């Protein structure tokens, strides 16, 4: 889309009318910050995608171990504080991540 000078001037006039001249610098700062955050997050996603790509490895046929029985999720007792419940959940998440990493290894 090619915007010429008349179109840009028309857009700027509409912005001044909608937001007022005093709020335009704050609006521009907010848009700039949002764009920087968006770019940083998308670059992180691209980096994560590059790291997650598996390498091609010739695997020899090996017997698969029996699947582990599902772990029982301990029910948080009402007397546990929020910090203790959060710690338990973090430990469970770490165990699940470790199991997933072990499954990915040949």
Please give a handful of descriptors for the protein shown.
106 residues, mainly alpha, 2 domains, 63% helix, 0% strand
Topology overview:
Elements (H helix, E strand, L loop, with lengths): L4 H15 L4 H29 L29 H23 L2
Membrane topology: Single-pass membrane protein
Keywords: Cell membrane, Membrane, Protein transport, Translocation, Transmembrane, Transmembrane helix, Transport
GO cellular component, one term: TAT protein transport complex
| Total helical segments | 3
For the record, the count of structural domains works out to: 2
Largest sheet: none
Strand content: under 5%
Chain-averaged pLDDT = 76
How far apart the termini lie comes to: 50 Å
Order of helices and strands: HHH
**Shape, principal axes of CA atoms:** elongated
Helix content: 55-70%
What kind of assembly state do the chains in view correspond to? single chain
Overall strand count? 0
- Low-pLDDT runs of 5+ residues are none
Specify the structural class. mainly alpha
In angstroms, what is the radius of gyration? 26 Å
Quick summary:
The protein has 106 residues and is mostly helical. Helix content is 63%, strand content 0%.
Any overview of this molecule?
This protein has 106 residues and is mainly α. It is 63% helix and 0% strand. It has helices spanning 5-19, 24-52, 82-104. The longest helix has 29 residues, at 24-52. The relative contact order is 0.05. It holds the Pfam family TatA_B_E.
């Amino acid at each position: 889309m090619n915007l010429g000078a008349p179109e840009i001037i028309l857009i700027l006039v509409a912005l001044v009318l909608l937001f007022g001249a005093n709020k335009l610098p704050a609006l521009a700062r907010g848009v700039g910050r949002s764009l920087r955050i968006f770019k940083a997050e998308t670059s992180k996603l691209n980096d994560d995608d590059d790291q997650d790509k598996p390498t091609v490895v010739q695997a020899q046929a090996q017997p698969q171990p029996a699947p582990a029985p599902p772990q029982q999720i301990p029910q948080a007792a009402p007397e546990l504080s929020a910090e203790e419940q959060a710690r338990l959940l973090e430990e469970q998440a770490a165990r699940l991540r470790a199991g997933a990493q072990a499954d990915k290894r040949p």
